[in-house]
Amino acid sequence: MATPAPESSSPSTRVLRVAVVEDDPTLRLFLEKLVTKKGNFFEFVGAWESAEAAAVTLLSERPDVIVVDLELPGVSGMELIKQLSPRLPNTAFVVLTIHDDPQKVFAALRSGANGYLLKSARPADIAAGIRQASEGGAPLSQDIARLLIQSFQEEPAKPEKKEIPGLTPRETQILELLAHGKVPKEVAYELHLSYETVRDYLKSVYQKLHVRSRTEAVIKYLEHNP
């Protein structure tokens, strides 16, 4: 898990279709302008003030990234992610919220969110987080990453790591490195494996743990080895 990386300006970068679910009209307009302004990177799909208003269109439009507020009228943003993520396996969900509680972060990630950003984040960091989530990353605002690290440091150390049933030693080793913040390319380099081999191992891990993303797999690992 990492903070958003600088946005690429490569002309070959794929244009991402981005949707927004946010009940605050000022912030909704801000996000629309942010996405529209970066027309070389993003295509604006639409913005809705509630989960109920957005759900049907999101399922038909299938955006690359959906930016979601947690506190929505009616159905919550977390519930929207939980309902839509299994039906939109190629869509990344980025939470944008005021809440900096680690428990809410974990709950959102378990629900299927790929990233968690605070509304106080700079516009450039929000845009970079959208791009990073679409590429399989797990963008976190710096304050959120710091809080998560602190919450782990406050936990008593465990003398032994618990094996996750069903995973091979190599799969567990790869998952452990990911949990320590490494990306697949770094894991491949450290273990002297090809990047494609690591990806194959990850596909097997996803199937065995019944998850669909690196973030969810890491959460499962941390639940076994807090």
Automatic annotation (TrEMBL):
Keyword Acyltransferase part of the UniProt annotation: no
SMART domains: HTH_LUXR, REC
Membrane in keyword set: no
Domain Response regulatory: 17-134
Domain called HTH luxR-type: residue spans: 160-225
Taxonomy of the source species: Bacteria, Pseudomonadati, Verrucomicrobiota, Verrucomicrobiia, Verrucomicrobiales
GO biological process: phosphorelay signal transduction system; regulation of DNA-templated transcription
GO-annotated molecular function: DNA binding
Alphabetized Gene3D superfamilies for the sequence: 3.40.50.2300
Residues the record lists as 4-aspartylphosphate modifications: D69
Highest taxon in the source lineage: Bacteria
Protein name: Two component transcriptional regulator, LuxR family
Alphabetic keyword roster: DNA-binding, Phosphoprotein
